[in-house]
Predict the 3D structure of the following.
Amino acid sequence: AQSVTQLDSQVPVFEEAPVELRCNYSSSVSVYLFWYVQYPNQGLQLLLKYLSGSTLVKGINGFEAEFNKSQTSFHLRKPSVHISDTAEYFCAAYSGGYQKVTFGIGTKLQVIP
Amino acid sequence: GAVVSQHPSWVICKSGTSVKIECRSLDFQATTMFWYRQFPKQSLMLMATSNEGSKATYEQGVEKDKFLINHASLTLSTLTVTSAHPEDSSFYICSARVGGRNTGELFFGEGSRLTVL
């Protein structure tokens, strides 16, 4: 089985402050990991992905995430958030054996001016 | 590259009518497309996997006679909500996987907001 847990449903943060959105996964096999962003009434856009190689992955809009196999985590970080980062963020996992993408429940990031 | 377009973005219909939503891959061939449903403040629920030229594979609990999926070409999949009722009101999102890439990376359409009156 495969599951993704996003520990925080909502994260309020002041503009220009750093933020970390947490994601933990469980899988009996190797997984690929993703972070997607969803703006209101829109589809999902890929922020970044971990397939293999360096555990620190950089994505669009200044976001980065670190794959930690021992802690089965893939937390998303940004050193300084902007108002435009206000959105819903989804962590997702995929394994070739399971052949499906599993999404977390999402974390709503609210950037406060 | 890898752009997926969904149409319509918004649709309002009367109870009992059918609604068709289109999902197109604009710059690549998508042998596999996925249809999701998203309830307010919840994650995406996979409804079905659509494979070009074959029948869709539905997830447990999804009524295949109600949510008809057709994937007649490598760039188009359609979802038809038949005899829609207010409880079918939701945000429907399609996604596609680029052929030959088995990394799980998905490209999403813009979503379609269905409101059934």
Observations:
- The mean pLDDT of chain A is 92.
- The interface with chain B takes residues 32, 34, 36, 41-46, 49, 51, 90, 92-96, 100-101, 103-106 of chain A (CB under 8 Å).
